[in-house]
Write a structure and sequence with these properties.
Layout: H1 3-8, H2 12-22, H3 29-41, H4 47-75, H5 88-91, H6 96-121, H7 125-139, H8 152-173, H9 180-203, H10 205-210, H11 216-220, H12 222-245, H13 264-271, H14 283-308
Helix pairs in contact: 3-4, 3-8, 3-9, 3-14, 4-6, 4-7, 4-8, 6-7, 7-8, 8-9, 9-12, 9-14, 12-13, 12-14
C-alpha cells in the first residue's frame, strides 16, 4: 500500500492531528509573542490591528513550517534518521502536493491580512517588508539555493522577521509611531527566537551535517554552537533589564526577570556535551517556553504601564 493511499484513508480526526503536528504548534509562540509585545509596547494597543498582525505572523510561520516540511522532504534533507517531530512529507502520511498547497494557502491568508493592515494603517513600508517576509519564508528551504543551509543568514533572518519586523511592525500599525520600548522588546524576543532555531539545529546536528546542510550550528561545531545557544538565551532574558537601566523601558519591565528560572534546564542540557540527537529533543520546547514566558511577562508590564498613562485601549478598536 502506498503512502498516498494511506494518507487518503485517514479519518477527519486523525487527519486534523496530522496537520496540527505539521504546523509545529509548540513553536507558534515565536510568531505570536512578538505581535503581543509590539502592541503592548506601542502604549496604544488596539484590537483589530493586533488581531490582523497575529493572522499575518502565525500565517507566515505555519506556512513556512509546512513549506520546510515539503522542501526538506523532497530534497532528502529529512530522512528516517531524523530525531525530531515526525514530518508529513518524508513520512508519507500526507501527499507532498497537499503539504505544499497548505503552505501556500497559509501564506496567502497572511498576505491578504497584511495588505488589509497596510491599507488601513497607512504604513506603506510594511507592504515591502511583508513581501520580503513571504519570499524569505518560501526560500528558507525552497528555491535553487535554500538559505536555511547557509549558516548565519538563516539566524539573522529569524532575528529580523520574528524579532524586529513582527514587533516593530505591530507597534507601527497601532498608529502612534514606534517607541524605544518596542525596539528593546524586539531585540530581547529576537534573541530568544534565534535560540529556538539553534535548539532545533543542535538536535539535528548529525543529520544536517550528513545531508550537507551547513546550518550555523554545523559551521560552528557542537561546542561553540552550545555556547552560542547559552549566550542567546541569557542575552534575551537580560536585555529588558538593560533597557530599564538606560531609561528606555519602564521599571515595571523588570518583572520579565521572573522568567530567569526557566534558563536553568536549557543551560544544564546544553552544557552536557554527552547529550546528542534524541537526548536534545527537550531543548526546543524548553526554549519555546522561555520565549513565551519572557514575552508574556514583558508584554503584561508594558500594557499595565500604557494603561496607567492613559492608553485609549478601551476607546477604540482601530
Amino acid at each position: 500500500m502506498t503512502a498516498t493511499t494511506l494518507a487518503g484513508r485517514r479519518g477527519p480526526g486523525e487527519a486534523a492531528r496530522l496537520w496540527l503536528a505539521g504546523a509545529r504548534p509548540r513553536t507558534l509562540g515565536v510568531g505570536a509573542v512578538p505581535v503581543l509585545l509590539g502592541a503592548a509596547a506601542s502604549g496604544h494597543p488596539k484590537a483589530l490591528p493586533t488581531a490582523g498582525a497575529l493572522v499575518v505572523a502565525v500565517g507566515v510561520q505555519v506556512g513556512a513550517n509546512l513549506a520546510n516540511d515539503y522542501f526538506d522532504g523532497r530534497r532528502g534533507v529529512d530522512t528516517a534518521a531524523r530525531v525530531g517531530p515526525r514530518r508529513l512529507t518524508v513520512s508519507g502520511l500526507v501527499r507532498p502536493g497537499a503539504v505544499l498547497a497548505a503552505a501556500l494557502g497559509c501564506m496567502a491568508v497572511a498576505a491578504v491580512a497584511g495588505v488589509w493592515l497596510v491599507l488601513a494603517s497607512g504604513q506603506l513600508w510594511l507592504l515591502v517588508a511583508g513581501g520580503i517576509a513571504l519570499v524569505a519564508a518560501l526560500l528558507y528551504t525552497g528555491g535553487p539555493r535554500p538559505y536555511a543551509a547557509t549558516g548565519v543568514v538563516a539566524d539573522l533572518a529569524v532575528f529580523a522577521f520574528f524579532g524586529l519586523m513582527a514587533t516593530l511592525g505591530t507597534a507601527a500599525v497601532q498608529g502612534h509611531g514606534v517607541p524605544a520600548a518596542a525596539w528593546w522588546a524586539a531585540v530581547a524576543i529576537g534573541f530568544l527566537a534565534v535560540a529556538v532555531l539553534v535548539a532545533n539545529n543542535l538536535r539535528d546536528l548529525a543529520t544536517d551535517r550528513d545531508a550537507g546542510r551547513h546550518t550555523l550550528v554545523v559551521r560552528l561545531g557542537d561546542g561553540r554552537a552550545r555556547s552560542f545557544y547559552a549566550a542567546l538565551i541569557v542575552a534575551g532574558v537580560l536585555t529588558p533589564a538593560l533597557g530599564v537601566l538606560v531609561g528606555q523601558l519602564p521599571l515595571l519591565a523588570l518583572v520579565s526577570l521572573l522568567a530567569t528560572p526557566l534558563l536553568l534546564r536549557p543551560l544544564r542540557i546544553s552544557a552536557r556535551r554527552e547529550l546528542e540527537g534524541r537526548a536534545l529533543v527537550p531543548l526546543l520546547p524548553l526554549t519555546a517556553r522561555l520565549h513565551l514566558a519572557l514575552g508574556a511577562l514583558l508584554a503584561a508590564a508594558l500594557l499595565v504601564v500604557g494603561l496607567a498613562s492613559g492608553s485609549p485601549l478601551a476607546h477604540s478598536l482601530w
